[in-house]
Prior knowledge:
Radius of gyration: 18 Å
Number of helices: 7
Distance between the termini: 23 Å
Strand order of the largest sheet: 1-2-3-5-4
CATH class of the largest domain: Mainly Alpha
Amino acid sequence: MLQRYTVIEEVPGTFRHGRLLKVSGGREGGQSSPYHMFVYPTTATTTVPRVRALRDKNIQRVSAACPSLLSVVDIGPCDVDPELGGVPVVFELLPDITLRDFVKVNSSAMSEKDVVAIVQQILTALKVLHNKDIVHTALTPDTIWIRPQGGLQVVVGGYGFGGQGDVDVSFLEPSSLSGGFSTMFDQKGYDLWSVGMVTYFLLSRGEQLVPPLPAPIPFPSSGVSERAKEFVRALLASREADRTRDASAALLHPWIPMPAASKDACPQQ
């Protein structure tokens, strides 16, 4: 059951699925804390199935156990909240810096080692989600944040409960935008395609590929190792049958160093 929250302010911006609010609240008798709340509009046909899926798969426990996932702390019933005018999902405060913002500020100082650390955490988060048959569907530099505690602590948000702002569709697998039927295996593969696009964005210090992708993929003339190029090509191969479409398999690529504690930072769910 959703706990009682007080709206502090509505976060300005254009959101795909509803409204983003900053709220305060918490468990009865506990200390009040600030959170973000996303309110799904009941006019969207996907609202009830999306929220029900998150509840059924115990997304609170799943996200709380993985530091690379934005933590969901509360979720409303699958019907409209009369005061909010939609179905609310409450999660930890979004960090201020998106991955896109981070690259803009730090592009000249980023090393390939930094890129590996970021990509490894993204894949670890996707592995946890995919193990529960939860797909992201909107993985871009705008739905990945850098935590403010220092270092390169990544948090992946936007999964299942609405991406932050308008989605940059150039990071999404073109087949995922067709609106046709796709299997869970296909949808997980679409997320891995997005990882390839985000990895290229990081390796090229902010340059974006735009589908249809050129062949061969044009990497920067310096500063990108052959293993990094192989990793991206494996995720973005033109034939789906040739792509790496599984997060666990991507984590085993030679470009991702072994051993690495962060590969198992999130317990198996």
